[in-house]
Amino acid sequence: MFDFIRHKVKTVFSLRILLLKACAFGLSWLFTPFWFFLLVAAYFYLVPFFQPFKLLIPFILTLAAAVAVPYGFWFAAFLGLLFFLLLGIKNLILVNRFENHQLMVFLLLFLIFFGLFFHFENWQRWTVSVGLLGAGLSFFFLFKELADYSKERSESRKMLVAGLGSLLLWQAASVIIFLPLNHFYQTALLFLSAVIMTDLFLEYLAKKLDRRKILNDFSIFFVLASVILVSANWGL
After folding, report:
1. What is the pTM of this model?
2. Residue pair 232/182 in contact by the 8 Å Cβ criterion
3. In 90-112, which positions are buried (b, 16+ CB within 10 angstroms) versus exposed (e)?
4. Interval 69-117: pLDDT, tens
5. What does the pLDDT look like over 216-234, one tens digit per residue?
6. Are 98 and 92 in contact (CB under 8 A)?
7. How many CB atoms lie within 10 A of CB 154?
8. b (16+ CB within 10 A) / e for 1-37
9. In the chain, what is the straight-line distance between the N-terminal and C-terminal CA atoms, in Å?
10. Residue 48, preceding bond cis, omega within 30 degrees?
């Protein structure tokens, strides 16, 4: 009984500390020089020094997203939530790690995609290519982490599926970025594509993919993509 109470108290205390770190992360990004924000992020990630390489790639991508997105309260909140999930998973504070990891991946992809499309008009031709490649590689590494939760034991198959998803997302982004749409709608289209691909590929790795699942996901994609395209103000 006392061990159970002690565990609950420790969990609540850890969550409160985690929440304070996430708030400090978001506020330091919004109100302090970027070099100071990097120091805050590195300190919170490395202290306590516990499995620092486990989520190193998502941490680096979080910093990249912090560079890409425009300054504002809502993006500070998104970054804070992202850091909350990242530290909670890394330090084994959050339960249901797959669900929280999936939420972290989707939020990180959304911020990366928004930053890509938000800066498109100010980029040169070669930087657009680098940005598109970066979006594809981000999907590869983040999906591979989700694939590690699956029952699939073949690393080569997981790498192959992650590579295929990365290639498809890169191609989708290469088309969407040149559509005469606002960056909000471009982000929504690419994000929807990434979510649907992630769901289908994870089901494939879990050996649960069937015709009904494929039809269901493509129906959802068609309906939501149609809503996005119809509601968009085409800048022709």
Report:
1. 0.92
2. yes
3. bbebbeeeeebbbbbbbbbbbbb
4. 999 999 999 999 999 999 999 998 888 889 999 999 999 999 999 999 9
5. 999 999 999 999 999 877 7
6. no
7. 10
8. eeeeeeeeeeeeebeeebeebbebbbebbbeeeeeeb
9. 67
10. yes
